[in-house]
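Now read this:
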Amino acid sequence: QVQLVESGGGLVQAGGSLRLSCAASGRTFSSYAMGWFRQAPGKEREFVAAISRSGGRSYSADSVKGRFTISRDNAKNTISLQMNSLKPEDTAVYYCSARPASASVYYIREYEYHYWGQGTQVTVSS
């Protein structure tokens, strides 16, 4: 079992930056693959970025590629999402997710994740 708590959301102007963090409980954080998803009003939750348990492999959705960077610090049980060049269409609730992983892989489908945080709101004004 792992508990996830996101932070760092807020209101920012288009073109600005935010850094989201996700703190995980538990002593086996380094055995979990992690991901970020988001859900905009009236839309389904969508994949944003994922990272393997070691941090050696990562993947981002085309919509955020080149603007968002996922990273993790296994010593601190945290993952981060650095978001640059934000656009109004990035406005959403952002969720951190986790699942046990037996190899250095990442997961991009919502149903593949076992644990979810409560979400943090990101609002980008035009």
Observations:
- The first strand starts at residue 4 and ends at 7.
- The two ends are 40 Å apart (CA to CA).
- DSSP finds no helices and eleven strands in the chain.
